[in-house]
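Exercise 3.2. Students should predict the tertiary structure of the chain below and write it as structure tokens, then compare their answer with the key that follows.

Predict this chain's 3D structure.
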Amino acid sequence: MEWEKNKNIIMIKEILKENNGYVTAKQVTQRGVHRMYLHIMQKLGLLEWVEYGIYIDPTKIEDKYFTFIARIENVTYSHMTALYFHGLSIKAPTNKYDITIKRGYHNKKLLEHNCFFVDKEIFELGRQYVETPMGNKVKAYDIERCICDIIKSKNRMDLDHVKYSVKQYIKRKDKNLTKLSMYAEKLGVKEEVMNFIELMYE
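Answer key:
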């Protein structure tokens, strides 16, 4: 088939391989390929449209965690949802995610989820890329930031779930109590966090 020799389609297929079966319009543009080739590949059945600017290999199963947040720079998975990615949550989040949003950013679609609004300097604290269960990288907070957040927001969460996550954190060999203390201080909850941690030690 002629499309198999088209250099632009070959380039997009390479992007798909590099990104676990996903390609975005932004990535295509950065490689110097016109976005119309995404539509061409969709018509050929080589791509499926997932969401604005995001396409997936038709042989792949959509990763909802990835497609939900892939294009949104001012939002980060946090609290129990992020702890699920770290293997520290008692159950997987379903249709409602815990997300932290940079103050001043507005998107009505996000309000369907558990939203936590913070200032810019706090928004960046402990922010990193983590892998979803399907192996895609998403923006989420590291473990210590999440532990601070769930203790700080425990009145908005299931207390048994909070206790479970904290106890599992305490058991981890890679826990960093120095970092936890530093984060807690920056978040203004150092005494509350350290007291809760002490309480959960068996």
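Discussion points: The chain has two domains: 2-61, 65-200. Strands lie at 22-24, 48-51, 54-56, 75-77, 98-102, 114-118, 127-131, 137-141.
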